[in-house]
Amino acid sequence: MDAKFHPAIRAIKAGDVEGLSALLEQDRSLATARSSRSHPTLLQCLALEALDMPNKIDMAQLLVDAGAEINGPLGVAACIDNVEIAALLLNKGAAINGTGSWSPLEEALYWNNQRVIDLLLERGASLHNLRIASGLGRIDLIESFFSRDGTLKPEAGKIDWPFGELRKSNLNCEIKELEAKATQWSDDPQEIINNAFVYACMHGQIDATRLLLTKGAQINAIPPGFDYSGTGLHYAALNGHRGMVEFLIDQGANVNVKDSKVNSTAAGWADHGGHPELKQYLDQAAITRIIKGTLEKVGMQDLNNTEQLKQRLEQETQKLTLVALISPVCPLCRHGFADVQRVLTNVPDNRLRAHIVFLPMYPGDDKLRAQTRTEEFNDKRVTYYWDGDKVTGSEWQRVLGIDRTAWDVYLLYGPNTRWNGSTPAPVFWMHQLEGITKAPWLNKAGFESKIEEVLATLK
């Protein structure tokens, strides 16, 4: 925090009620002013830092009496499970459901802080969206967020997380990274269901998890709405829910999927969470799947030249064909691949084919990572390839007329396209390459709309 707050911070860390009181008598603005660095206010500092500090209630009372804002600190108390401070702030009139789109109850659920969860439920916190209902295992409420035809109602809410007001948080070193993640989100119903599914898994709500699977939750999906982005199995392992882990594996969860933050499997998350026996169980589950030959691999072909791919495409000239050239590791490419998966799920037409080519364009890209990506989505209309020499990237650089190797590009070819000569230009394409203006930036809705438009012209 700014220098003016340092004496007060020392008093808080020492549990010095009299010292803090004297400082506030000299300058009451210490309670109401915002710092430009670190904790925004002293009360937020106290809520976060004084978890086991003596006299924390008395010091919080001094700050509240001096006019400190109390709604932000309630969210902070929820994120660290500082239940005593949370109770005081509620008693003083803090908004139990927060003042924005993210509530204190969601904060406590996100960080798995059961004491504050219990307090907020006891005080009547609102259960107003699908992720809250799922984290709490409220089957009745989960059902209420779906229409009779199985579609998700608007009342289910949107993707959100604790970092919604980054510019007010003083998290200067992390703002760009977090904002970059948030810009990739969509409020696609599938993503909202997958997000809620992870909340159910992280809190060990097996019945809710089972129900969400029947509603279309994707068991191996890594949904938006999390800084440490992992599958439901990752979060169940992190929080030590052995029963949930066993249930998910029985339902087909892939123990070899790695998260997109630290590149670790669920076993690694169990180890980080302090659950060595669960880590051992997950390690053994991975070995068992390999030994039994049940590792869910989708065939991936090696490409040595573009003619191999073109020969395959020539066999499907009556189909509408999607060709994607992507890195298996690049975060933007993973977002693009997720969009392709959603498009194919939303357009189950057998006249559509997809050919996904993985290229080593990003640090960490290799054939094994590409194989892992193929395990995320199994559709009989999709064929996967590994292009270790980037021959397709060079070929489509020429075809598209761009100034670099083609990757993170999504190409659409209409029926009757011929592939037995020069590589043809696509009828439509999108990309995620900075500085390229020959085609629009990838947009799932726009790409899906174009596919449906072409399909509508076919007999």
Walk me through this protein's architecture.
- The chain has 459 residues and is an alpha/beta fold.
- The chain has three domains: 3-100, Serine Threonine Protein Phosphatase 5, Tetratricopeptide repeat (Alpha Horseshoe), CATH 1.25.40; 132-291, Ankyrin repeat-containing domain (Serine Threonine Protein Phosphatase 5, Tetratricopeptide repeat, Alpha Horseshoe), CATH 1.25.40.20; 300-456, Glutaredoxin (3-Layer(aba) Sandwich), CATH 3.40.30.10.
- The protein has 23 helices and six strands.
- The chain has helices spanning 6-14, 17-26, 29-32, 42-49, 56-65, 71-80, 83-91, 104-110, 114-122, 130-136, 139-144, 175-183, 189-202, 206-214, 232-238, 242-250, 266-272, 276-291, 306-314, 331-346, 367-374, 391-400, 444-456, and strands spanning 300-302, 320-326, 352-358, 382-386, 409-413, 428-431.
- The protein has a six-stranded mixed sheet, covered by helices on one side.
- β3 (352-358), α21 and β4 (382-386) form a beta-alpha-beta unit.
- The longest helix is centred in the middle third of the chain and has 16 residues, at 276-291.
- It is elongated, with a radius of gyration of 26 Å.
Shape: elongated
Helix content: 40-55%
Protein structure class: alpha/beta
Main sheet summary: 6 strands, mixed
The total count of helices amounts to: 23
The residue ranges in which pLDDT falls below 50 over 5 or more consecutive positions are 293-297
Number of strands: 6
The CA-CA distance between the termini, in Å, is: 67 Å
Q: Residue-averaged pLDDT, rounded?
A: 91
